[in-house]
Design goal:
4 helices, single chain, mainly alpha, binds zinc ion
Length: 132
């Protein structure tokens, strides 16, 4: 077996630990964002209930509806981001992190520090980009 490396070094133990810390920090951030969004959604839900029971003529209705859609959109965006981070963490656990899923080449510490969730080495990423 002669795996293409594109001259990129595999991750060192220290680099792997750094990237794992980076991914965990990102996961915490996403969870905190999620909690904030849930709180805001709850506030909108309560405000909507109040405004419909208190006042049939509801000047705030459309504003609350817009806010609700905005927040739901943000919440829906979070799930795939979390899944990506979890996927990367699972790969670290499995020992397959930092290896291109297309050609098995090392992705490289520099690229992973910029994009810790990257699954393709820069060569494959460029090739696929060029094909679009
Ligand atoms: Zn590759």
């Amino acid at each position: 077996m002669n795996t293409q490396t594109h001259g990129v070094a595999p991750l060192s133990e220290a680099e792997l630990l750094d990237l794992e810390a980076l991914l965990r920090a990102r996961r915490t951030e996403l969870e905190e964002d999620g909690a904030r969004i849930e709180e805001a959604l709850e506030a909108v839900r309560v405000a909507r209930e109040d405004s419909t029971t208190d006042d049939e003529h509801d000047p705030e209705g459309p504003t609350l509806t817009n806010e609700w859609s905005r927040l739901s959109g943000l919440r829906d965006d979070l799930a795939p981001k979390l899944a990506t981070v979890d996927g990367a963490l699972a790969k670290i656990a499995a020992g397959t992190y930092g290896i291109c899923t297309r050609d098995g080449a090392p992705i490289g510490a520099a690229r992973l520090e910029a994009r810790p969730e990257a699954e393709l080495c820069i060569h494959c990423a460029r090739e696929l980009e060029a094909r679009r």
